[in-house]
Amino acid sequence: MVQALTNLDNENALNLKIDNRTLTQLNLSHRSLENELMIDSLVFTSGGIFVIQYNEARGMIDGTQERPIWLSDGDVRMKNPLQENEKIIQALKNIIPPYFHDYFYSIVGFKKRVKINVPGNHKNIEGNQWLLSESEIPEYIERIILKKNVQQQKPIKPHHLNILERGFSWMNK
Predict the structure, then answer these.
(1) Which residues are within 8 A (CB) of 52 and not within 5 positions of it... i.e. 6 or more apart?
(2) Cβ proximity of 49 and 99 under 8 Å
(3) Which of 33, 53, 68, 88 is deepest in the core (most CB within 10 A)?
């Protein structure tokens, strides 16, 4: 079931200080999608659309951008969460207007304390993919939006956010 989070007391809310529309626990199906999409959180803001997937991995996370399988805690295999989130974003681009395609951002949030041994700076604010602890996500979204709003003067209008939210709610099973 999709829920629009407007109550800041909700445990799933990101408590952002900026205007946003957040949908959680989405199961999207559409005729142009090969498979149903399962998305933990989709956050619509004036500066971008954030696709957030939460990961339960623990310990040391070993991998590279290119490797399809990463290791958690030395021997637990997991699909590369960056690649998995990118697949979701590419599928979403098949069902929304091209105007929004450049405003997608990928966030993988780790619910447990992890040490990430993946080459690259996955906390670089200039990027578009982040590996973050769950508690860091709201701060990163706010920093990115502030930066985007200064550079591009709110590329996504409030009425566009409403249209996107309604469209995704409609597609949810």
Answers:
(1) 39, 40, 41, 42, 43, 107, 108, 109, 137
(2) no
(3) 88
| Domain definitions of the chain by residue range | 3-171
- C-alpha 132/C-alpha 7 separation (Å) is 24
- Give the three-class secondary structure for 156: coil
What backbone phi and psi angles, to 5 degrees, belong to 147? Answer: -65, -45
Query: What is the pairing mode between strands 59-62 and 69-72?
Result: antiparallel
- pLDDT tens track for 121-163: 888 777 788 899 998 999 999 988 887 766 665 567 778 888 8
Residue 54 bridge partners (DSSP): 109
Contact partners, residue 73, CB within 8 Å, separation at least 6 = 57, 58, 59, 60
Separation of alpha carbons 143 and 148, rounded Å: 9
How many residues are listed for the chain in this entry? 173
Separation of alpha carbons 93 and 109, rounded Å: 22
